[in-house]
Specification:
By secondary structure, the protein is α+β, with helices and mostly antiparallel strands. About 30% of the residues lie in helices and about 25% in strands. Strands 5, 6, 7, 14, 15, 16, 17, 18 and 19 form a nine-stranded mixed sheet that branches. A six-stranded mixed sheet has the order 9-2-1-13-21-20. It has a three-stranded antiparallel sheet with strand order 3-8-4. The longest helix has 17 residues. The radius of gyration is 23 Å and the shape is globular.
Length: about 475
C-alpha cells in the first residue's frame, strides 16, 4: 500500500488525509504544533452559504454552497444549522443588492426575502434604518470539534497523526519522493512515503518553497472579537461588498464578530491591535447601535493563506478565497511532491477531494473519492461529571474531564474548554493546572496567552475583569509579578 505524508494538521491537511485513506492510501499527518493550533483554530465558526462571495468571488461562492449541503450530511455532529440573514441599510447601494441577488441565483445559493418585523423579533437590538433582509443557509461549524472528529476517524482507519513534529525536508531518489525528514523533541528521523502533500496553510511557502515552482502565498490576518453573551441565534451578515466587521456568528454561548483583512509578511498570527478592535466596534454599531456596551471577552487573530496569481500586486481583500494545487514536478521539482494553498474551512472536504484526485492519479490508485458520502463519526459524549468537582465554572468543566487529557496546556484547553469563558481562567487556571506536573511554568504561559487577547479590548466591563484577574493572581494567589 502506498503512503502519503501530509504536512499540516489543520482542516486542509486532515481533509486531504481523510480523502486519501478512504481510497485505501496510507497516511501520516505531520503537525508542527497542536491540532487546531493554526489558522483552522482561529476563525469565526461560519459554515458559509456562499452568499458573501457571490458577487466578488463566484467560484468560491459556488464551492461554499455545495459543500455547505455536503457537510450537513456527513458531519452533523459538528454543525449547528442556525440559519443566517443578510441585512441591507437604507444608506447601502441598492444596485449592489440587485447584483447580489442575481449572483446568488447564478451560483445556486438559496436566498429568501424576509420581513423586517420578523427578523427584528428574532434578533433584538438591530438598527432602525434597515431596508432589506434575506435568509440564507449559513450555519455554525464547530471547528475544534470537527478537527477532533477527523483525527479520530483518520486513526480508526490506520492513519497516523504526529503533533509537535516539524517537517524538515524531502528524501528523494532518482528525482522521486521517497520520504520526509521530521524533527520532534530535538531528534530527527525519516518517515518513508511515496508522496508528500504540503498543506501547511500560511506556512506553505516556507515548507514547499524549495520543491520547484513559485509558491506565492500572501498571508492576511483577520481580527475578530468575542462577546461574552450569545445575544441572538442567527448568523448576521451585512448586505454589502465583503469588508471589515460584516459578520456576526453565534458560537456556543458566545458571539464572534469580525473580521478585518490586512496583508502581512509573516505567517504567524500577531497580537491583536487595539485600534483594529475599536474600529470593528465602530463598524458593528451600524447594525447594532448598542454594540459598544456589549461585554467583550477577548480579541484574536487568524492568518489566511491566500494565493497570489501573477506578478501584479493586489490587496488581500481582492484575492480569491478559492484554492490551487501544485504538482511540483511540472516546475522541475521532484515527482510526488504536491502543495495546496488557499481555500476556506467550508471547502476543506472539496480541497481534500481535488488533492486526493491528483495524488491518487500519481500513485496509480484508481479508487474514486468517497469523502462526500462517508459520514465522519461524532465525538463520544463527555464523561459524566458524577461527583467530580467543577474545575471551570464558566464552561462547566469538571475535574474528571481535564484529568485524563495528556499533551500541552493548549491541547488541554481546546479539548476541555477550560479558561475559555468570560473569566478567561481567572479562577480555574490554578485549579486545573494544579492537577499537572510542572504547573508553574504552564500557568505563566497560559496567563500570557489569555491576556494577549484581553488587552486589545480592555475597556468597560472587560477592563474591570482584567483588574480583578490581576488582583486575584498577584494578591490572592501570590503569582510572581513581572512588572
Amino acid at each position: 500500500m502506498s503512503t502519503v505524508a501530509v504536512i499540516g494538521g489543520g482542516a486542509t491537511g486532515l481533509g486531504v488525509a481523510w480523502d486519501l485513506l478512504l481510497r485505501g492510501v496510507g497516511v501520516v499527518v505531520i503537525e508542527k504544533d497542536e491540532i487546531a493550533g493554526g489558522t483552522s483554530g482561529r476563525f469565526h465558526g461560519l459554515l458559509h452559504s456562499g452568499a458573501r462571495y457571490a458577487v466578488t468571488d463566484p467560484v468560491a461562492a459556488r464551492g461554499c454552497a455545495e459543500e455547505n449541503a455536503i457537510l450537513r450530511t456527513i458531519a452533523p455532529g459538528a454543525i449547528a444549522g442556525v440559519g443566517g440573514v443578510f441585512l441591507g441599510k437604507e444608506s447601502d447601494s441598492p444596485e449592489f443588492g440587485e447584483r447580489w441577488l442575481a449572483a446568488c441565483e447564478s451560483a445556486g445559493i438559496a436566498v429568501k426575502p424576509a420581513q423586517l418585523a420578523a427578523v427584528r423579533a428574532e434578533i433584538p437590538g438591530l438598527a432602525s434604518d434597515l431596508a432589506a433582509a434575506y435568509r440564507v443557509q449559513d450555519a455554525v461549524l464547530e471547528g475544534f470539534r470537527l478537527l477532533e472528529m477527523l483525527v479520530r476517524a483518520i486513526q480508526r482507519l490506520g492513519g497516523e497523526v504526529f503533533e509537535r513534529t516539524r517537517a524538515c525536508g524531502l528524501v528523494t531518489e532518482a528525482g522521486e519522493v521517497r520520504g520526509l525528514t521530521v524533527e520532534s523533541g530535538g531528534e530527527r528521523r525519516a518517515i518513508g512515503c511515496d508522496a508528500v502533500v504540503n498543506a501547511a496553510g500560511p506556512w506553505a511557502g516556507e515548507v514547499g518553497g524549495s520543491w520547484g515552482g513559485e509558491l506565492t502565498v500572501r498571508p492576511s490576518r483577520g481580527t475578530l472579537v468575542i462577546f461574552a453573551n450569545r445575544h441572538f441565534s442567527r448568523v448576521v451578515n451585512r448586505l454589502a461588498p465583503p469588508g471589515n466587521g460584516d459578520i456576526f456568528v453565534p458560537h456556543g454561548r458566545v458571539l464572534i464578530f469580525g473580521t478585518t483583512d490586512t496583508g502581512q509578511e509573516s505567517p504567524e498570527p500577531p497580537a491583536p491591535l487595539r485600534e483594529e478592535v475599536v474600529e470593528l466596534i465602530r463598524i458593528g454599531q451600524e447594525i447594532f447601535p448598542a454594540l459598544a456596551r456589549w461585554r467583550v471577552i477577548r480579541a484574536f487573530n487568524g492568518v489566511r493563506p491566500l494565493y497570489q496569481r501573477g506578478e501584479m500586486w493586489r490587496s488581500s481583500r481582492e484575492l480569491s478565497r478559492d484554492f490551487v494545487v501544485f504538482e511540483h514536478s511540472t516546475a522541475g521539482g521532484p515527482k510526488g511532491a504536491f502543495s495546496v494553498i488557499g481555500g476556506k474551512w467550508t471547502t476543506f472536504r472539496l480541497i481534500g477531494e481535488k488533492v486526493g484526485d491528483l495524488v491518487a492519479g500519481y500513485l496509480g490508485v484508481d479508487r474514486p473519492s468517497a469523502s462526500r458520502v462517508v459520514r465522519i463519526d461524532p465525538l463520544p459524549p463527555k464523561p459524566s461529571g458524577g461527583s467530580s468537582p467543577i474545575a471551570c465554572e464558566c464552561e462547566g468543566v469538571t475535574s474528571a474531564e481535564v484529568e485524563g487529557v495528556d499533551g500541552s496546556v493548549t491541547e488541554l484547553r481546546l479539548r476541555s474548554w477550560f479558561a475559555m469563558g468570560p473569566c478567561q481562567g481567572t479562577f480555574c487556571a490554578h485549579r486545573v493546572l494544579g492537577m499537572r506536573d510542572g504547573a508553574e511554568g504552564e500557568l505563566t504561559g497560559l496567563r500570557a496567552e489569555r491576556e494577549k487577547g484581553i488587552l486589545p479590548a480592555a475597556w468597560g466591563d472587560n477592563a474591570r475583569m482584567l483588574s480583578l484577574q490581576r488582583s486575584v493572581r498577584f494578591q490572592s494567589l501570590g503569582e510572581p509579578w513581572d512588572g
